[in-house]
Amino acid sequence: MKISELTLFNNKAETAGIGLFLLLAVLPLVLGVLYALLYSLGLIGLISDGFTFSHWQRALSDQEFWLSILYTFYIALTTIAISITSALAASLYINKPLQKGIAGFSAYIPLAFPAIVVAFLAFQLGSQSGFFARLFFQFGIITDTAAFPEMVNDPFGIGIIAAHTFMAMPFFTLYFMSLYDQENISELSQVAQTLGASRTAQLRRIIVPIILKRAFPTLTLYTIFVMGSYEIPLILGRQTPQMMSVLVIRKLRRFSLSTIPEAYITALVFIAIILTILYLLFKSRTFSYDLDR
Amino acid sequence: MNLMIRYFFILCALLLLSCSGNEQQQPDLSTLGWEQIQHRAEGQTVNMMMWQGDPNINAYMQNYVVPKVKELYNVDLEIASGQGNTIVSILMSELEAGKEEGELDLVWINGETFYQLRQINGLYGPFVSQLPNAKYIDFDNPFIKYDFQQPINGYEVPWGNVQFMMIYDSAQVQNPPKTKEQLARYVRSHPGTFTIANDFSGMTFLKSLLIGIAGPGTLDGSFDQEKYQKYSTQLWEYINNIKSDFWKNGETFPSSVSAMHQLFVNGELHFTMSNNDAEVDNKISEGFFPESARAYLLDNGTIQNSHYLGIPVNSSQKAGAMVVSNFMISPEAQYRKARPDVWGDGTVLDVQKLPEKIASKFSTLPKESHAPNNKKMQEKALQELAPEYMIRLYEDFRTHVIQQ
Amino acid sequence: MTSTVNIKSFWAKVLAATFIFPVAYLLVLSLAESWLFPELFPVSFTAERWSTLFSTNSELFNSLLLSLVVAVMVAFISTLSGFYTSKQLAYHRKRKLWMRLSYFPFVLSPVIYAAVLYYYFIELNLAGNIGGVILGHILIAYPYSVILFSGFWGNRTQRIEQLVQTLGGNRWQTYKHVFLPLAQGLLLICFFQTFLISWFEYGLTTIIGVGKVQTLTLKVFQYINEANFYNAALASSLLILPPIILLYFNKKYLFQKRW
């Protein structure tokens, strides 16, 4: 009896709540995809000549487009791999000094940096006349700027990866340390120790697997976040290949107006990739909502 | 499901509301006298979009034009950052959405932007002849009268006139290369010290080379696909031949001329370039360029062109935009803009038409001291080509050079 | 044993230096009169940039205020509406679907999201004005807020609500005396996190705001564009100082699993 009264009581509130949610979180995405789709098929737009697949054909046969997808994955996966490794090392090896004093405070500092400032900094420090190059120059390691290795606008995206790592690594370190406490990992490894497992075995068989398994959804979401980043590759990247978000905006704002549909196609493909990754993530068992967690 | 339907209707209502709102028609300004326009402009807020890649230009606008138009005409001028391609893209989206009152009221444009905006019917006009100060404009000068070979027809008002310059550091380089052969030799023997900015300055440089390859006058007139194909192939061949000795092995290019200046100042590059012949002087005087920096011309000549102000067709503050642009071509504003310590942008006014007092001020402007004199510049001035050449150069520089 | 402790604390110090150095670098650059290659340190300093910031009509100061207004509005609206809706969603039989859906806009690249939505913002007269930028930020911050609060609502809160109602309390009283105090910490975290989402946002702001709504991040970009690195450093300092101050008060406000 009580229950049904409750649902009845909640009905209006529920309508408002879920309505607001649909309006702000679901509808925009649907409308956005719809618009991009119509534009890419030539159904809307000032310069459109009616329904056509030609934009799709042109976009998909463009080598730059595929390179951009590969490059986006390369940057995101490399960043995440480096960040996870270094964060694991830091959170397991120097967790004690990292929990107190200046060091404890400092790990939080990168969280106060917006992406655009990190990009600016990476450029200032890493360019061939930047701070590090000056350091090398003053110590006589290099005699002119060209001798300093390229770290920004470089072919391998070193600057982009470094900037993202600067933001991701401390975040992962703090996250792993909190997981370590939450999951009572120290107790588990003590049990293992009494059973005769070496420290390496504990790390390999217990600690790292538990942390990574628990962190998997967060790590995946962070990967998606890096894939969609804009300011960092815009400032630190090259003109080609470009990450997808940069490519979309460039194609949208070219003098040759004919590439606008291709910009929307790139956007659609990006959205499709993200949706697929999220779908796979939700399907995996590591991701669930238990009411009583 | 019920919920969805209701929700859908709310949305439709919202859309309707936004469409049916403010439909108040602006009166036809072309029938009004200047005083009436000034009267309408009072209290308007004019949103101007312009390239903001130079601190001096930004300071001139922010510290001089903005307070002046407020003081004199009670117009609030607000400035947003955006280059030609962004302006075209914004206007295009607005026109697609059928937006009658756009976000932009005044735009700083020339050449290919003017062309694209005309293509999509994005510009308001003709309005130039209504501006009282337009009578001072030097419309006999072909470099002002034509914007990339296009007659302006009153759809944009000339604002400044400049010539492209190469800039080098005389402390490092004794004989700067003045022909494309010399340049190739220089690049080969000094790898990593030369590059081309991937923006309008770099494209203007390429255009000067293209004209040099094709020969004087060959490319004049409207866009010729065959000629373009022929000569641009040679241009790309030339660039790709020496590209491996460009800055960063020619695998990437600075995204803007300001980034290039920075590389020049830090010694990574021996050369930079500028669309503004006075830039070398004003950058030296502010201590940004070394005292030894010099501007010079290519033997084949460099491009001289003008830049303009246009009013978007869907601007809701056209009167205000007209009043602001009239102020910006006033003798005082033009004089101040021409001062090398302010901006050093060439005037579009015919000094002989001006009242004597202000005309004498123009004649006492300090002469450019680190750049070729006016006479030499005029001798080497090349006319702009049709805008399609610029658009193609942007596209093809990417596909034929950057992506190779 | 002591030597391992020493090595560990050495590495911790190296890491700490890596994280603190950028802040110092930005402050020094913002105070440098000129700092060119190959100088390792600026030759002379000037406080002029910082002092003009507080003079009348400073563009940068206006951007600071604008950023502050936008971020506070976004944080306030997102936190409250997220708190309210997350409850309805959490109790709903389709909660799993709702929660999953809320991740999409949150992780999607804001700049791409803005590109495909720009048309609608124009239609709704929301392009190029502060209202549109706030709405744009909310489209990202609100789903985050929903996700953050989803863990708060559960059987426990349901039982409490029933209890309060059995005792004759109405819905407003339930919120005022039970839920809001219970969620106080989380609400604050959410407020600051959504504040930062807005405070840090660049790509969406420049598209939806048509470059006219010049928040601090846009100013940084503009200064980078004109190769005016000293002012870029100043604007960057203004961006990072508030979060660092916040950090000083409570680390929790900054470190929250956002993904």
Automatic annotation (TrEMBL), chain A:
Membrane topology designation: Multi-pass membrane protein
Entry keyword Mitochondrion: no
A GO CC term assigned to this protein in UniProt: plasma membrane
Main subcellular localisation: membrane
Transmembrane segments: 20-48, 68-93, 105-125, 156-177, 219-236, 257-282
One of the GO biological process terms: transmembrane transport
InterPro entries: MetI-like, MetI-like_sf
Pfam families given in the database record: BPD_transp_1
Localization of this protein: Cell inner membrane; Cell membrane
Entry keyword set: Cell inner membrane, Cell membrane, Membrane, Transmembrane, Transmembrane helix, Transport
Assigned protein family: Belongs to the binding-protein-dependent transport system permease family.
Protein name: Sugar ABC transporter permease
Protein's organism: Fodinibius halophilus
From TrEMBL, chain C:
Compartments it resides in: Cell inner membrane; Cell membrane
ABC transmembrane type-1 domain sequence ranges: 60-251
Gene Ontology annotations of biological process type: transmembrane transport
Gene3D superfamilies, alphabetized: MetI-like
Protein keywords: Cell inner membrane, Cell membrane, Membrane, Transmembrane, Transmembrane helix, Transport
Domain of life according to the entry: Bacteria
CDD domains: TM_PBP2 (cd06261)
Membrane-spanning ranges: 12-32, 60-80, 101-122, 134-153, 178-200, 229-249
Any single Pfam family the record assigns to this protein: BPD_transp_1
Cellular-component GO terms for this entry: plasma membrane
Membrane topology type: Multi-pass membrane protein
InterPro entries: MetI-like (IPR000515), MetI-like_sf (IPR035906)
Record-stated family: Belongs to the binding-protein-dependent transport system permease family.
Protein name (Swiss-Prot/TrEMBL): ABC transporter permease subunit
Biological source species: Fodinibius halophilus
